[in-house]
Amino acid sequence: MNHVKLLFFATIRERAGTKSLEVDIPEDMTIRGLKDKLSADIPGLKESMKSVLITINREYAFDEAPVPLNAEIGMFPPVSGG
Amino acid sequence: MELPTIFSITEDEIDLNDLLARITLTSTGAAAIFTGMVRGQTARGDAHETEYLEYEAYIPMAEAKMKQVADEIRGKWPVVEGIAIVQRIGKLYPKTPTVLIACTAAHRDTGVFEAARYGIDRLKEIVPIWKKEVSSDGEFWVEGDYSPKAGE
Predict the structure, then answer these.
(1) What domains can you pick out in chain B, each with its CATH number?
(2) What is the ipTM of this complex?
(3) Per CATH, the architecture of A2-76 is what?
């Protein structure tokens, strides 16, 4: 299994009800698989997972990317700094 | 010589004079500075009043992406000397400066204005910072409309 840390921000943090979560996932899981798992495990996140931005180890990542071992995964809506 | 590049997320007041001094070289003759502040009254579009904005950031990634924006500026405008990119987070009230982008160069006609403009535009696209707007009508998260591409 792959032990990864999920970090939630802004609307995703509020809907998840937590800032972070550590989960064990299969070693061949992709970002898409991880999003599907979260949609199933945390009903409040189901809608958000359609438009969420994802980062792997602080770089933007996309659905087909495999989740690396012990990755830090960020999940958040489009940014609005300034 | 290493050119001064400052990038930070802070909860403290943004000190323009200090930042400007730190990006001014003996060869510097011009600085273009953009700062954004909390707008208490919005007339454009959906007119409304804002009580305060609450900012949060994915701090280590945000600072890394600010450095990337600075690197992009240097790639496009090699004449730029110093760069400062600072975002204040936390609960911020109207008239309070929230963000500052400053670029220095030898002269004003070197593209230094465009460099600062590029800096704030890119910050709003790729740097992971969010704000929640609070008004008498309630609160809502402001969301951007940019989807970063691979390699951004």
Answers:
(1) 5-142 (3.90.1170.40)
(2) 0.96
(3) Roll (3.10)
